[in-house]
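[step 3/7] inverse_fold.run input=structure_tokens len=373
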């Protein structure tokens, strides 16, 4: 198989605030640039702060001097209906263009697109107008021959079910995990406003079902007067439903919303938490769960999407969309030191199987297969 050397990677997701896709991009670039046989460059489909890209990517990643002359919206509109403009005119000659976040531009090189989930098809009511452009963009890229990278077998199966593609054009390469640095439990407890708390991390959006978490917390809080809930992460959309649920909760004084947090605060909160909770209605991977498991924080998650595949038996799983089941799981975790101890032991072992080195090994094999096609 041909061995592609020059890789152009979409790094738009590195712009603040950093989300799960941004962590994926950072992890891949940080590992790929360590490999001397790879020539790694990054591009961004944005006019916003385009001059900042060189400061956002890891040292050694090249950033083309030429910049895209249009904002994302008109470029996406053009790429949804036509195979121009080619991205090559801005990034120069490369072997592979990898669209890391559902969008791979038209290119004369080999094209690879990462599909993190199929929310845009499965739950369009949970999507922003920008996300609702993905069906046209993905469909056009597939018609041009792009190879699909998925981060879980669950998403791969969904892609194969929905799109008429041969199986060798859809390849699973799981995410790695960058374990947070050891945090200060006392500092995390200070942010939470108490010594006993559970937490969630992620952008506020309907797919995360944070109102359901608030409701489940309320059921447990009735019996546990010291327990607190920390909801960390930036506002996305659908935040009004979360605010209304918190305002209506009789335990709202014990619910802390931090907004976006930096890596140090993230580590501190994980260090002091009794558990990380992922009450999602749908997930294509679930990176916060693996990050928490890596540092020994017990995880409670809904058994939806790729979460069972990713966490294995190293987390407590409950039915999705069931507030009472989530509350029962939460009560079990906060009252059972034995359960927490078991998950604290199993979590790091499970997380250790997800490394960025393995991810980039898999992507290199994928790039070679795609180039051979």
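[step 3/7] decode complete -> sequence:
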């Amino acid at each position: 198989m041909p061995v592609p050397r020059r890789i152009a990677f979409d790094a738009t997701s590195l712009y603040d605030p950093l989300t799960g896709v941004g962590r994926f991009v950072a992890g891949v670039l940080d590992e790929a640039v360590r490999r001397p046989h790879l020539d790694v460059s990054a591009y961004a489909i944005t006019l916003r702060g385009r001059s900042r890209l060189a400061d956002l990517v890891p040292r050694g990643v090249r950033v083309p001097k030429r910049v895209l002359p249009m904002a994302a919206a008109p470029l996406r509109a053009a790429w949804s209906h036509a195979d121009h403009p080619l991205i090559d005119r801005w990034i120069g000659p490369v072997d592979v263009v990898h669209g890391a976040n559902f969008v791979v531009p038209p290119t004369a090189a080999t094209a690879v697109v990462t599909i993190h989930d199929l929310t845009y098809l499965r739950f369009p009511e949970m999507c922003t107008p920008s996300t609702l452009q993905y069906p046209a963009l993905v469909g056009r890229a597939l018609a041009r021959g792009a190879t699909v990278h998925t981060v879980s077998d669950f998403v791969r199966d969904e892609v194969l079910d929905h799109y008429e593609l041969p199986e060798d054009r859809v390849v699973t390469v799981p995410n790695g995990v960058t374990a947070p640095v050891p945090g200060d439990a006392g500092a995390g407890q200070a942010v939470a406003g108490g010594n006993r708390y559970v937490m969630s991390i992620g952008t506020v959006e309907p797919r995360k079902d944070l109102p359901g978490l608030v409701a489940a917390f309320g059921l447990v809080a009735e019996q546990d007067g010291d327990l607190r809930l920390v909801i960390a992460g930036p506002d996305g959309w659908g935040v009004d439903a979360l605010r209304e649920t918190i305002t209506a909760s009789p335990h709202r004084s014990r619910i802390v919303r931090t907004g976006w947090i930096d890596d140090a605060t993230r580590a501190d909160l994980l260090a002091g938490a009794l558990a990380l909770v992922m009450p999602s209605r749908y997930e294509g991977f679930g990176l916060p769960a693996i990050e928490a498991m890596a540092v020994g924080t017990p995880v409670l998650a809904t058994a939806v999407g790729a979460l069972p595949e990713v966490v294995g038996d190293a987390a407590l799983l409950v039915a999705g969309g069931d507030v009472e089941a989530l509350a029962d799981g939460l009560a079990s975790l906060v009252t059972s030191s034995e359960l927490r101890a078991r998950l604290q032991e199993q979590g790091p072992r499970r997380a250790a199987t997800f490394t960025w080195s393995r991810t980039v090994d898999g992507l290199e094999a994928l790039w070679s297969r795609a180039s051979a096609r």
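[step 4/7] annotate
The chain has two domains: 6-176+355-372, 185-351.
The two ends are 9 Å apart (CA to CA).
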